[in-house]
Specification:
Blueprint (H helix, E strand, L loop, with lengths): L1 E4 H8 L3 H10 L3 E5 L2 E6 L10 H67 L3 H15 L8 E2 H8 L3 H14 L7 E3 L2 E4 L7 H4 L1
Antiparallel strand pairs: 1-3, 2-3, 4-6, 5-6
Helix pairs in contact: 1-2
Length: 200
């Protein structure tokens, strides 16, 4: 029995060194390690160890099939990425279009409001019209009364101003005939009376 290095054994059997290592792992070839070098033990008779071509062909086919499958999956993944990006772009465009349309609607409303103010003599007359419309819509056409809260809301006062005006109206509620108290709430009749002196 002779002793060969892995490279010598590969040349002896006409196979690769990896094939020699595989045979050692499977136990079909014996080996020893001498001074840190692995040696293959070969019998006196020349052993034939031709690789199994059918096994090799099978592995090659499997590798090719896997490569094809990987390429297909990569293409599908790229397609999905492209579709997702396009969907995001489309959604962004839709949102931008919605905001653009709303901006245009807002501009139209502001133009109407501005032209309305320009055609009226004073802001009070616009508010009186709004109060009248609100009374009509509330299905009580004969009454032009509105609560102080509603009146101040229509006037557009800030919170601090509202508090001061409310206090002033409460102070004069018992002696000013323009202020009507019903169910504990202060009511005004802006169509009949001018409250400018109490709103200062």
């Amino acid at each position: 029995m002779s002793k060969m290095t892995v490279a010598e054994a590969a040349a002896h059997f006409n196979i690769s060194k990896e094939a020699i290592h595989n045979r050692i792992r499977r136990g079909s070839l014996d080996c020893v390690i001498d001074h840190g070098v692995k040696y293959v033990l070969i019998g006196d008779k020349r052993e034939t160890a031709t690789p199994d071509s059918r096994y090799h062909d099978y592995i090659e086919k499997e590798n090719e099939a896997l490569k094809t499958r990987i390429a297909k999956l990569e293409n599908e993944t790229q397609t999905l990425r492209d579709q997702r990006e396009q969907m995001l772009i489309d959604e962004r465009d839709k949102v931008e279009q919605i905001y653009k349309e709303r901006d245009e609607q807002l501009r139209s409303v502001l133009q109407v409001v501005a032209s309305k103010f320009l055609t009226q003599a004073t802001m009070d007359s616009v508010i009186e019209e709004a109060v009248t419309a609100e009374v009509i819509e509330s299905s009580v056409p004969e009454s032009s009364l509105v609560t102080l809260k509603e009146f101040l809301k229509l006037k557009g006062y800030r919170a601090k101003q509202k508090e001061k005006i409310k206090a002033r109206f409460k102070k004069y509620a018992s002696e000013d005939e323009r202020i009507i108290v019903e169910a504990g709430k202060l009511h005004l009749d802006p169509q009949r009376f001018d409250y400018g002196d109490l709103l200062k």
